[in-house]
Amino acid sequence: MTDKIEYDVLLVGAGPANLTLAHRLVDLADKPIRIAILDKAKDVGGHLLSGAASNPRVLKKLFPDWDKGEIPIQGICTESYLSVIGKRRWENVPSMLVPSYFKKEGYAILNISDLAAGMITKITEKAEAKEGVVVDVYPGFPAQEIVYDGDRVAGVKVDNTDGDLADICYAKVTVFGDKGFISRDLVSRFNLRKNPQVYSVGVKEVWETAKSYEGKIWHTLGYPLEPGHLGGGFIYGCKDNKLIIGMVMGLDSPNPNIRPPQVLQDLKKHPYVQGMIRGGSLVKYGAAIL
Ligand SMILES: Cc1cc2nc3c(=O)[nH]c(=O)nc-3n(C[C@H](O)[C@H](O)[C@H](O)COP(=O)(O)OP(=O)(O)OC[C@H]3O[C@@H](n4cnc5c(N)ncnc54)[C@H](O)[C@@H]3O)c2cc1C
Predict the structure, then answer these.
(1) What backbone phi and psi angles, to 5 degrees, belong to 28?
(2) Fewest beta carbons less than 10 Å away: which of 51, 64, 81, 121?
(3) Each residue of 178-226: pLDDT tens digit?
(4) Residue 67, domain member (yes or no)
């Protein structure tokens, strides 16, 4: 990066929200436009943890052939369950009693990290095919601070991860998709939040299993969370015998000694989950605040 750069649109964070916007801007562009996308991860998608069951409505709008290899997906849900579990019990709630939110048949099973990488490729390909449309992607460049011009956001101060001198990236429009890492400054400066923020933590592992569970989704309630602790488990069966197992739990647990990674281990020790992962191997793991 040079010392001062100016764009029409600056997107802070290359998560699915900002990448959707970038994709749409490139699609709509009928005159020259310069777009910059910054992300703190060294590779786009590198800091994204979610294994998501995603309603294909938006995917279809962006990528009409989403289910035919246009973007990386892990499978399409064919069976979904809401399960109420105890230390040894596992009961799937009868379908007619399952709230529609937990019915995921037809949903895309995504690895958001792969999706982001795939979206960047699509966006840059589309931009290259359009005269005057420039999309510059800067992975490994965390935005450090918002730069104001009076009450207007003029851009952000950027630092690269190797510790070089900070640059300033200016733009006519700056969009923050950084989940609040630096945009919380905007929230307090312009008094944008009416309701208090609720925080949860997600812990997740990806397993390679002996048997394929592709297309199957379980959401769990109850064990191993303590009564009064908001949250639940999720298990997503992906292609290539991959199985995503995770827990999301509120950070306002009544028990201050709760250890989210241990909660996930307790879910994995459940006989039902053991039946899925026994003989398999752990591929990767991670945690994120959401
Ligand atoms: C364990 C887990 C399971 C989930 N399961 C589901 C699910 O099943 N279905 C579903 O719909 N959703 C799910 N979610 C939620 C989903 O992942 C988020 O809603 C979605 O990723 C939000 O997208 P986003 O683009 O707003 O932000 P994010 O995906 O968080 O992207 C933010 C990006 O900004 C970058 N960034 C942050 N700060 C800076 C900075 N200062 N400078 C530059 N870049 C920065 C980050 O590196 C990241 O790439 C899950 C989340 C987790 C953690």
Answers:
(1) -80, -20
(2) 64
(3) 988 899 999 999 999 888 888 999 999 999 999 999 999 999 999 999 9
(4) no
The CATH number given to whatever domain includes residue 270 is: 3.30.9.90
Q: Is the CB of 182 under 6 A from ligand 1?
A: yes
At 129-184, the pLDDT tens digits run: 999 999 999 999 999 999 999 999 999 999 765 655 558 999 999 999 998 889 99
Summarize pLDDT for 58-74 with one digit per residue, the tens: 899 999 999 999 999 99
CA distance 119 to 24: 11
For CA atoms 222, 234, 103, 208, the dihedral sign is negative
**Ligand 1 centre distance from Cα of residue 31 (Å):** 31
The reply to whether omega before 16 is within 30° of 0 (cis) is no
ipTM more than 0.90? Answer: yes
Q: Whose CA is nearest to atom 27 of ligand 1?
A: 15
Q: What percent of the chain has pLDDT over 70?
A: 96
CB within 8 A of 129, min separation 6: which ones?
A: none
Question: Is the same domain home to 181 and 204?
Answer: no
Query: How far, CA to CA in Å, does 21 sit from each of 9, 58, 232?
Result: 10, 12, 31
Q: Is residue 21 part of a domain?
A: yes
- Determine the average pLDDT of the residues in 257-275: 97
Residue of the nearest CA to atom 46 in ligand 1?
13
205 and 268 in a common domain:
yes
Residue that finishes a domain, picked among 189, 222, 247: 189
List pLDDT tens digits, range 25-53: 999 999 999 999 999 999 999 999 887 89
Is residue 100 domain-shared with residue 127, that is, in the same domain? no
* Ligand 1 centroid distance, CA of 117 (Å): 13
Separation of CA 50 and ligand 1 centre (Å): 7
Tell me the residue range of the domain where 282 lies. 76-106+198-289
Instruction: Determine the 3-state secondary structure of 101 from DSSP.
Output: helix
Of 189, 209, 241, which residue is a domain's last? Answer: 189
